[in-house]
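Risk register update: the risk of archive-format incompatibility is retired. Evidence:
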Amino acid sequence: MNRSLAQNSSFLKHLLILSLLTAISVFLERFLGYNDKVLSISIAFLPIALAGMLFGVVPAMAVAALADFLGALLFPSGPLDLRFTLIAAIRGAIYGFFLYRRNLTKPWLIGMQALIILVPNLIMNTLVISTLVGKGFFALLPLRVVKNLLMFPVEVFLLLKMAEYRVSFERLNK
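Archived output:
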């Protein structure tokens, strides 16, 4: 009986942490970020990366997808398009795969963030945005490349700082 209670308590604690990370991501994206039809600049990736670091692929996917869906539903900056939610889930899967139970070295984090910039951010998001705004993929790409190149060192720096506190985050999670 006590073991079942402890398992339920642990599950609820993890669910609460994931819920808070989702809410923080929505807040960082919708209130502290810049969003228009073509560009989005924020640090809302940090709670998703933390979910990936602490819990793995599926929870990070859930946090990313829920944060995108709830943010678009509650605080719209454009049409609700589930393709963006799917892309957010893919981004969460990458964070979960690369951060969960891994040795987080600088080259590892740089490679992971480069993959995220290349596939979900530049290729997938730009394809979806081009269909929504009626402009060609290659017409939108230069501005999006510049934005992602400018944000890349900031994102890597923040991920490195988060990795330094990994032990503290894991201790809070137990």
